[in-house]
Predict the 3D structure of the following.
Amino acid sequence: MLKRTILLLTCAATPLAAQIPASEFAARRDSLAARVGNGVVIAFGGRTPVTDFGTFHQLAAFHYLTNFDEPDAALVMIVRNGVGSPTLFITPADPRMAFYYGWRPDSAAVRNTLHMMARASTALPAFADSCATIGLPVYTLDDFEDADFARADTLTRGRVFVRELAARHPGIVVKNAHPIVDQLRARKSAAEIALLERAAQISSEGHRAAMLTANPEHEYELRAALEYEFTRLGASRPAYGSIVGAGVDGTQLHYMKDSAAAKPGDLVVMDAAGEYEGYAADITRTIPVSGTYTPAQRTIYQLVRDAQAAAERNAKPGSSAQAAQDSSVAVRARGLAKLGLIESEDATLDPPWHADCQHQPASCTQAGFWMIHGISHGLGLAVHDPAQFSYGDHTYKPGDVFTIEPGIYISTRMLDALPDTPKNRAFIAKVKPAVEKYENTGVRIEDDYVITQTGVERISTAPREIGEIEALMKQRRRIVP
């Protein structure tokens, strides 16, 4: 317990991360204008929440450009020859509702703090109509809640507004500004990295707290330990729905019910992190409920950890992100073959989802069936944020902040999901005894990294080696029910 106290006090005493100055937000708008050249940018922020579960949270792209974190706002920027003139359209709070949810800044406050012109949102339609007559293309930033679900989130206020604008002005050209803004967001500034480092520190302490939770009997007890520590250390909210899955639940990648029993002998996959000043960390640890890994669990865990280490060695400035992915896959494929969980490193099967096995055989490998997901994504204002290695030559560059998160998930119910084909029947017959040996073993290890001018730095510090985790969990204070 003393060791834990020292760790927490050290983290709590860390100076607060630097805030992002107003000049940086202005520079972002200038960079967008330079890339647009000539056009009208129309961006919409989030709407007033229609439930009382949580406070308003601004959409990532809108916050990135404006730093205006109030609902029902829009940004219009007229760009000529690479120079933009931004105007923020804001909606005042209803006087009665303001006593419930607070007052919003007025136009004068916006001008003083954000250094932008501001007008009432009621003036937006007429202003947009006047812009449409200029003859410039319209670049839109759609107001979907999350980029991962943008295709499903189609009936947003912004999309309806732009659709109606185009109907009133049939000659205008409408373009998507998200690819431009995403590439700007991909390179993190020093101020952004400081916020991400703080988010990772807070989140790491949350995982330590979960490892020290006395004899948990349910998944939600571990979630409570994680999220309590995030909040105690200054996180504004969880960065995403906390995933705490014990036993078979740990083989479901985005399991968020967190309501089942956590029994001795189970592994628990804890994919949870906090958000600090809008910036998200993303950390996963897999721990034994009993505090000690079984021999079978140690084998799979170490295989995943070795795969993460391989990717780390290949994550450095100028290196290919695909090389990091491939090295992680190769380590796991060799290990799975040795354990009898696949027929060979490059053996294939007929997957239960659509895949082009002829032209993309890697998507149909037996090894890939037990791995299922990639190992990396960017971090920032969204937990799945743009990264520079997703563009251009697909190499790591200074300013990239990202995860490395290999996993292996084994259960007989996955075999049951395979279509009944001769190839799959042969695969099942060969590997089923090994699958039963490792039944309901899900392992994911995820850390956060920054690419610097000279290398890569891991910024999440929760214990991840088998010996470290077991040693920390031995410090749990046993509570007799």
Residues 190-211 form the longest helix (22 residues). Residues 22-185 form a domain with the Creatine Amidinohydrolase; Chain A, domain 1 fold (CATH 3.40.350.10). Residues 1-15 have pLDDT under 50 and may be disordered. The first strand starts at residue 39 and ends at 44.
